[in-house]
Amino acid sequence: MDLGKAIGRLKPAVVTAAVDAALRMPPPFDADPPVPLTLLRGDAWTGVTTAIDEDGYRAVLVTAGGRRSTSRSCTVIGPDGGVIGAFAADPAAVRVAAAAAGLAAPRIHGPAPARVAILGGGPLGAACAAAVAAAVEVAQLVVHDPEGLAIDGARAAGDAASAVRDATLIVTATNARDPVLRADWVAEGASIIAVGADRQGRRELDYRLIADAAFVACDAPHVARTLADDLRDCVAEGHLDWQEVTALASVLAGDADARVTADDVVVVKLIDPTPGLLALARRAIG
Questions:
Q1: What is the pLDDT of residues 248-273, one digit of tens each?
Q2: What are phi and psi of 155, to 5 degrees?
Q3: Are 216 and 243 in contact (CB under 8 A)?
Q4: For labeling, which of 59, 99, 110, 142 is most exposed (least CB within 10 Å)?
């Protein structure tokens, strides 16, 4: 079976349900969580993350990249230790991240129509825009991309600051090395989903934005401790404690209230697509 093609044929509703289940699944460890493997030399970077589900199926995601580009491959292993298949994971990882953004959006934004800003007009930004639009009512959609990439149905903004100026829901979908979203650009009460910077050496969020947020959640806090440099920088500066980073699973399950007041700034950081990739592979295998 060509797992990549089989995953590509999955319907959006199936993808959303699979990613939802994967995000809600408790991390499979009883003691200290596993540390992602990383190798960084100059601009060359390789990272390895793993996931295991309740049936004993495993996924190993290898991410390799340089200054601008990144490629991923995922291997799925059965409970008996045999390799079921491997696939180029970039398109599937985009689907996982977008589905996660769509699941998080209504939980952190609330019922009012959203003024959405997307930073990053590539495939990830476009997929996130579609997933968010399917999850919340969108009053306006604005996109900024430094290379001029467009998203269907979105108004283009000339710079990031003007794109997010009156946004109530902001999605960052970039591979930026330096923050693309700064605290003084963001209005009170904004909800932010950071999707793109999922490896060391990448940062989308100004540490002040994280420090000032009333609530910070992450899909995989144990992975973020190694890979999420925007969160790591904020912790290193003493403005955030890892104990203050809530697992997104708790938000999706309704066990944690992301928003207490209308003026709260809420941040969700997405860092690890591996459990979602495993869930999609399991659905494709049948």
A1: 999 999 999 998 899 999 999 999 99
A2: -85, 135
A3: no
A4: 110
pLDDT for 31 equals 56
Q: Which amino acid is at 230?
A: D
Placement of tokens 């079921």 in the chain = 84
- Listed as own residue / partner, the contacts of 137-144 with beta carbons closer than 8 Å and 24 or more positions apart are 137/112, 137/113, 138/113, 138/114, 139/113, 139/114, 139/115, 140/115, 140/116, 141/116, 141/117, 142/115, 142/116, 142/117, 142/118, 142/167, 143/117, 143/118, 143/119, 144/117, 144/118, 144/119
Mean pLDDT of 207-227: 94
Judged against a pLDDT cut of 70, whether residue 32 lies above it is answered with: no
Type of residue found at 98: A
Structure tokens at 72: 């991923």
Q: Strand 138-144 and strand 191-194: pairing? A: unpaired
Q: Residue 60: what are its φ and ψ, rounded to 5°?
A: -120, 115
Identity of the amino acid at 121: G
- Checking if the pLDDT of 30 tops 70, the result is no
Residue 172 contacts residue 180 (beta carbons within 8 Å)? yes
As given in the structure block, the two tokens for residue 2 are: 């060509």
The sign one gets for the Cα dihedral 270, 275, 276, 277 is: positive
Report the distance separating Cα 182 and Cα 7, nearest Å.
36
pTM of the predicted model over 0.85: yes
Give the residue-averaged pLDDT of 106-124: 95
User: What is residue 26's predicted lDDT score, i.e. its pLDDT?
Assistant: 79
CB-based burial label for 12 (10 Å; 0-12, 13-18, 19+): middle
